[in-house]
Amino acid sequence: MTTGLSTRVGSVELKSPVMTAAGTAGFGLELAGYGDLAELGAVVTKSLAPFAWDGNPAPRLATMDEHLVNSVGLAGPGVEAWRRDDAPRLQAAGATVVVSIWGRRSEDYAAAAAALAGEPIVAIEVNASCPNVEDRSQMFAHSATATAELVEAARAGHHPVWVKLSPNTPDLIDIAASAVAAGAEALVLVNTLLALVMDVEHRRPALGAGGGGLSGAGLGPVALRAVYDCRSALPTTPIVGVGGIARGRDAVAMLMAGANAVQVGTASLADPRAPWRVQRGLVHWMRRHGVANVSDLVGAGHD
What we know:
Blueprint: E1 7-9, E2 12-14, E3 18-20, E4 43-44, E5 61-64, E6 67-70, H1 79-85, H2 87-92, E7 97-101, H3 106-115, E8 123-127, E9 131-132, E10 135-139, H4 144-154, E11 161-165, H5 172-181, E12 186-189, E13 193-195, E14 198-199, E15 204-205, E16 212-215, H6 220-233, E17 239-242, H7 248-257, E18 261-264, H8 266-270, H9 274-288
Parallel strand pairs: 3-18, 4-7, 7-8, 8-11, 11-12, 12-17, 17-18
Antiparallel strand pairs: 1-2, 5-6, 6-16, 9-10, 13-16, 14-15
Helix pairs in contact: 3-4, 4-5, 6-7, 7-9
C-alpha cells in the first residue's frame, strides 16, 4: 500500500506533515547527523530577531517528572547572521525551511520579515508568544489587536505568514480569528504553558529567570483542545499542531483534531531522531488502518 504523506498548509505544499518545532532543532544543521532533513515536511528554525540576543540567565532548563520547563529567552544570532551562516547550508541539505521570527515590538517583526524577503523559505512563523516590552505581564498573543499587528508586520517578507499562538488565554479563538483576518495563512497551536519549577533544596525557583514555559507530554492534551476548538470555529483555516508529539499516534491524534501538519518539539531534545521516528510511526499507523492519504485523517475527529 502506498502511503500519501503530502499535505498543504495554506499555499504551502509539504512532502510530509511532520516538521521540527521552533526552539528545539537549532538554526540549521543541528539535527542533520540524525536523519535526512529533506525527508521532513520542514525544518522550523529557532526564533530569530533583527538583532542578536543572549537570552535569559542560566539555568535555562528544568524538569519536573516527565515535564520540561524552559526559560531560554529567545537567544539567537539574529536574522542577518542566520542568512550568512545557516541558510546556505540548509538549502544545500535540501531542507524545506520555515523561519520563526520574534521581536520586542511590531517594527522588529517587520524588520526580521523584510530581511528574509529574498530567502528560499516557504513560510515565516510569527512567534507571537514573547513578552511585550511595554508590559511584561502581557504577551502579544494575549491580545487580538497586538497579534493582528504582528501578522501585518510580518507580511513585509512577502512569504506566507503562520502565527504561533499561546494556550495561556481564554480568548484563543478570537485571537486566532483576528490573526487570520490580518492575513495569517495558518495558525500554529500551541506555544508553551506558563510554568515554574521550585528548587526545594535551595528554596528558590530552579530557573535563572524565575518562571518559564512547560512543554512535553503534559502539553499534548492542551494542544489537542486548542486545535480542535480552532478547527471547529475556523473550519477553513489551516492549522499546524504542536505540543506533546513524541510518537506516530500522537501525530495521528493531532491530525484528527484538525491539524493539517504537526511539529515535533521537546521530544527532539531527548531523542534528536524523534521527528523521523514520529514520521515512521505515522506511516505505520496509516498502513495498519488502511489509510491511504494524510488528508483522510485531517479533521476526522469532527466527523
